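Below sits our specimen:

——
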Amino acid sequence: MEKKATSQQGAGSERPDRPLPEGYRQGIITAITVLLGFSLALFRFWGFEAPGEWTSRSIVAAGTIVFAVLLQIIALVRSLRLEDDDPAEYRKTVVWFATSAVALLIGLLVATVVFAGTPIPK
């Protein structure tokens, strides 16, 4: 019976030391850079090329997109650190990335609503 307790303790202590599977860091770095590229292109269009006047709603949309870009940059910096090989740190980075994606979706939704209400100049 003591042997079972020892093997269970060994199994429990092996879990935190288990390294991140191959390709996980490369995958999240790729995902972050793709979303960051899209976000910057969206902000370029929304901030500089979209027709219409700036309103409080368009400022909220732009601010939300900028906030999402900042979160993506934080997630990218976290994913490039050596500490991100630790599964616990990797999970935190994924949370930062997911939060940035949600913020981007909110900004995109607000921008779409604002842009839909903007008359096209003739």
User: Anything to note?
Assistant: DSSP finds four helices and no strands in the chain. The chain has one domain: 22-116. The CA atoms of residues 29 and 79 lie 6 Å apart. Helices lie at 2-17, 24-49, 56-80, 87-116.
